[in-house]
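Hi! If you just cloned this repository, the fastest way to understand the data is to look at a raw example. We've pasted two of them here, unedited. The first protein comes first, obviously.
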Amino acid sequence: MHMSEKFTLAGGAGNIEGVLDYPRDGAAPRGVALVAHPHPLYGGTMDNKVAVTLMRTFASLGYVVARINFRGVGQSEGVHDHGQGETDDMAILHQWMTEKFPGLPVALSGFSFGTYVQSQLAQRLAAAGTPAERLVLVGAAAKKWQLADIPADTILIHGEQDDTIPLADVLDWLRPQDIPVIVIPGADHFFHRKLGHIKSWVMQLWGHADLTEAEADAASAD
């Protein structure tokens, strides 16, 4: 099991509510992961099933994981800011986590609206000379939002039957970048009954090169 603890940060529009999840078995973290949830105006919270799946995946990989509720969600103050304020708040979270866990690589992950926030943050970090280790984008919000170009090693996972963000829109966005996407047959936007595919693919593609065989087995079994 991994430990969780709640925290509050001062954001651009008031307090930000968040949760930290530590690696399983109390191991020292090998990295930091930030998780961004889906659209706040359509029920998106940090407890969304896909966001929680991403958290559990990174905790299994040995990362300390931070999730926040965006503005106006849960105990987070302020109102929805169409991605700009949310990206600012995610940048505040990034700064807080890198100060709290100095020297560790930082992975960015998000679902739906959260993919827009993380693509924007990734662009900011790269421009500042502190690029993210890697991105994991699930249900990338192509065409709905102006997604920034992403690194070539980004892990993208999309549902074949996503009627919120059609797969064709994602392919149109990725084609000029020549970046592949993992398509889960039969999966809808929320990956109903398909959440396990998200974890298994991220685990595989993240690679266990720096994990011992026992650690890799334990992570896969979580």
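Ok, and the second one:
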Amino acid sequence: MPDKGNVYVIDDDPAMRDSLDFLLGSAGFNVTLFDSAQKFLETMPSLAFGCVVSDVRMPGMDGIDLLRQLKKEPKTLPIVIMTGHGDIPLAVEAIKLGAIDFLEKPFEDERLVIVISAALSHAANQSKTEAISTDIASRIASLSPRERQVMDGLVAGLSNKLIARDYNISPRTIEVYRANVMTKMQASSISELVRLAMRGGILKD
């Protein structure tokens, strides 16, 4: 079965850990078990990206304390909180602190698998989106001040002649700057340049 991603289970109950290890391993996840939140945090710097599944009530550092600590970390991991009966107020607090979902014990095995799969998929897409936005921002930063002015004019719908008039330079010179803009922005058309400008935050939709 293909590896569907990493899951880090944190629970002080050995039986629960073993049960989740079997369930999630059978579903194709690469599972690592921790008997305390503190041990997870100590190991976290060396861990690959994955979804954290943590009990909310544990001795020492509980699930809420773990969430507060993770908010301070540069590495962002999706977190699913498991709660017992009567822990719903804590679960709501967990959501406010960044948990993506909470599951009340006993929960259906399939629901946990679906929640983890969705969390990993969403995080992967978000990471890809952030990488694309960063790349576009670097392209924009590579433009000279004049090229940036020409790009602003192009995405505003101005013709070469109008942009040339605004900056008191010849339309032929604008054509050169325009070609440079298209090359540096890796845009094959004005419509693509507009989409890149919107993605880069310099043009609002």
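That's it. A detail worth noticing about the second one: Residues 109-141 form the longest helix (33 residues).
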